[in-house]
Amino acid sequence: MAAPPSAFVVAPGQAADSAGESLRLPWWTLGLCLLLCLGGIFDHDLWTPDEPRDAAVALEMGQTGDFVVPHLAGRPFIEKPPLYFAVAGILADVAGPWVGNVGAIRLASALFGLGWLAMTFLLGRRLMGRPAALLAVAALATMPGFVESAHWIRVDVALGFFVTGAVWCFAEVFFGGRRWFCLPAGLFAGGAFLSKGLIGPLLIAVAWFGLLAPWVLTGPEKGRRLCGLACPHLTALAAFLAVAGTWVLLLLKVGGEPLWHEWFWTNHVGRFQGTTPELAHLRPGHPFYYVRSLVIFTIPWLLALPAWIADAVRKGWQRRRLEPGQAFLALWGFGSLVMLSLSITKRDVYLAPVLSAFALMVPAVLARDLPRWLRLGVDAWTWLCGLLLAALAAAPLVFLTLHRVIPARWMPGGPASLALHAAVAGLAAFGCLHLVVRRREIAPGVRLTAAAALLYLGAFALAGNVVDREKSMRSEIQRFVKDIPAARRPHVAGWKFDETTRGIFFFYANWAVPPIEDRARLAQILAGQDPEFDSLITSAGYVDARDIDLPHRVLARANPGDLTHKRDLLWIAGPGGPPAPAPPP
Question: Where are the domains of the chain?
Answer without folding.
Answer: 6-24+41-366, 372-471, 474-573
